[in-house]
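Task: sequence design from structure.
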């Protein structure tokens, strides 16, 4: 998914001005940010559901038993991809021991995945097995294939798009915890400001 260039202005000087300004006045930009992120995630989730529906309509329908076996392969593959991406990240940061421990877990998962793949292969005709069985990533709406290799899965789960959506979802959850109280506070402040303006207008009319 290509989002293109961000239309917003990214300027460290403006950020410094904002941080200085918020020391004297609350502009409630966190509410605007939450609403923007919510819209962004809602759009992503809508694409995810649309992709799932499209796959259900176009992919060969599997029996409940075979579908369960396919999902097991998918789940193990995702675990491998996530752990492999994490292990590579730790290794790059110099945390070799932690990286090697994760790689041991990856090897164990690979064995379990190979066994799950054999069960899945034996449960259907060879012609059907060769077809790419897809699922949709619940985080970023990208397609993942049951025959994707470890490298592609690691690139996906360790990629900027997937990790970016994780950060967005985490930040959105964080902002949601305070948004209602913040909205109420903003409403109260705006009401006070309106009353103050009306009072000034009334005083001006009286003195005329």
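Answer:
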């Amino acid at each position: 998914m290509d989002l293109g260039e961000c239309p917003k202005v990214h300027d460290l000087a403006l950020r410094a001005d904002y941080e200085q300004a918020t020391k004297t006045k609350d502009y409630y930009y966190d509410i605007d940010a939450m609403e923007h992120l919510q819209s962004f995630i809602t759009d992503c989730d809508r694409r995810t559901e649309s992709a799932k529906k499209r796959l259900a309509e176009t992919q060969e329908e599997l029996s409940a038993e075979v579908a369960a076996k396919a999902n097991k392969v998918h789940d193990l593959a995702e675990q491998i991809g996530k752990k492999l991406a994490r292990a590579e990240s730790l290794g790059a940061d110099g945390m070799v021991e932690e990286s090697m421990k994760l790689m041991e877990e990856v090897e164990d998962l690979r064995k379990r995945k190979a066994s799950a793949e054999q069960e899945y292969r034996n449960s259907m005709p060879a012609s059907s097995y060769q077809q790419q069985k897809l699922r949709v990533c619940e985080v970023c709406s990208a397609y993942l294939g049951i025959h994707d290799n470890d490298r592609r899965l690691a690139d996906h789960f360790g990629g900027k798009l997937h990790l970016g959506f994780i950060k967005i979802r985490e930040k959105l959850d964080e902002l949601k915890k305070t948004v209602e109280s913040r909205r109420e506070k903003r409403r109260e402040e705006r009401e006070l400001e309106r009353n103050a303006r009306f009072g000034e207008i009334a005083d001006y009319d009286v003195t005329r």
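The longest strand covers residues 134-136.
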